[in-house]
Amino acid sequence: MKEVFIGVDVGGMSIKAGLVDEKGNILFKDSVKTNSKDGGKEALLKDIKSLMIEMIDKAKENNLDCKAIGFGIPGVVNNNLGTIDYACNLYVEDVPLKDYLKDLGLPVFLSNDANVAALAEERFGAGKGYTDVILVTLGTGVGGGIVIGDKLFEGIDGKGAEIGHTVIVVDGKECSCGRRGCFEAYASASALLRLTREEMINNKNSKMWEYCGHNLENVSGLTSFECAKAGDEAANKVIETYVKYLSEGILNLCNTFRPQVILIGGGISNQGDYLLNKITAYCEKFHYGYSHTPKVEIKIASLKNDAGIIGCACLAMDNLK
Questions:
Q1: What is the C-alpha to C-alpha distance for residues 314 and 301, in angstroms, rounded to an integer?
Q2: pTM here?
């Protein structure tokens, strides 16, 4: 009987789950809407359990041996107790997830969503073939996952690897975490939007105004990139500033961990080589050790929306070894 693992990617909009084999193939997947904003942790637990029962039943129908469940959570978890301590995007705290699912009869493992995405990329994505991999996800915030020696690094109780909250500008802009100058405050998609709007206000002749219909509310992650490609000087200034901050954070990771590869994920990574070439050029110019230390490769993550499900399954696989 073929062994499979349930990977569960819990997000603010939906809860996605899949049956994943040992080669990283998703054999079946489904999702439900996340209702915790209105229904609290009780609704979250109920929806997750229903989805798990569906996955287990689907495995039985297809003569698959379901071994364990792995979860990726957008927030702070305790991987020893199997609890969600705090997840602002889910509007919950102190959620006893592992205990609630104990009657399913399967081992349950939790980690941060960026951690499991890094694990997926290292095993089956752009990081395949490497053992030391860091994933930087650029979304509303800056997430990170660190794999060292083919093992996920999570810190005490799974609360480490918060690279988005390392400071790159002392006394800089306020971050949502309460500190100032965090990597997240300068290199997230939210930061890119702020930089774009600020430059548009300072430059009324920028093509970015036309691109977003002369309305700052229509500014998106594409605004500055697309206008920069069209030759707009103001947009190019935004991109160069953004790349500088992003690259400085990446250089900190290079110098702290010296991994084999750093992967860039999240919506902004869809810019592909246009973004990657700028980051690489900056890092090669300012990296103090590029000529005397192993060069860290920088690549775009490849698994996209499936990284969460696959990574959660990998978490379950690893914990059963």
A1: 17
A2: 0.91
